[in-house]
Amino acid sequence: MTSGAILDVARDGIFVFLKAGGPVMAVALIVGLAVSLVQALTQIQEQTLVYVPKILAVFVTLMVFLPFMGDALAGYMGRVAVRIATGE
User: Fold this and answer.
1) Where would you find the membrane-spanning parts of this chain (predicted)?
2) How would residue 74 be classed by pLDDT, with cut points 50, 70 and 90?
């Protein structure tokens, strides 16, 4: 396997990682910012208030995006398996 092929596999892996994890992380960020804004505006400084909405939002996002994430990971594994089988 040449260094160019290794870089292609690594680059593809990074893009698949970002496609699979990006939506969940974006939702967690948006929900965290919204809860922080509500806490700042209402001056409610309860530390556990951040976790429940964020956990629920991440869970719902995982349920919605799980088929897309599975397809992205399966496609990457298929491409890597073909490279291994062909010896590239």
Assistant:
1) 20-41, 48-69
2) very high
Contact 83, 7 (CB under 8 A): no
39 contacts 45 by C-beta, under 8 angstroms: yes
Helix (H, G, I), strand (E, B) or coil at 49: helix
Residue type, 22: G
Q: What end-to-end distance do the CA atoms of the chain give, in Å?
A: 5
Backbone angles phi, psi at 80, to 5 degrees: -70, -40
Type of residue found at 26? A
Composition of the chain by helix, strand, coil, percent to 5 = 90, 0, 10
**Which tokens in the block code for residue 31?**
């929900």
Q: Which two tokens stand for residue 73?
A: 């990971």
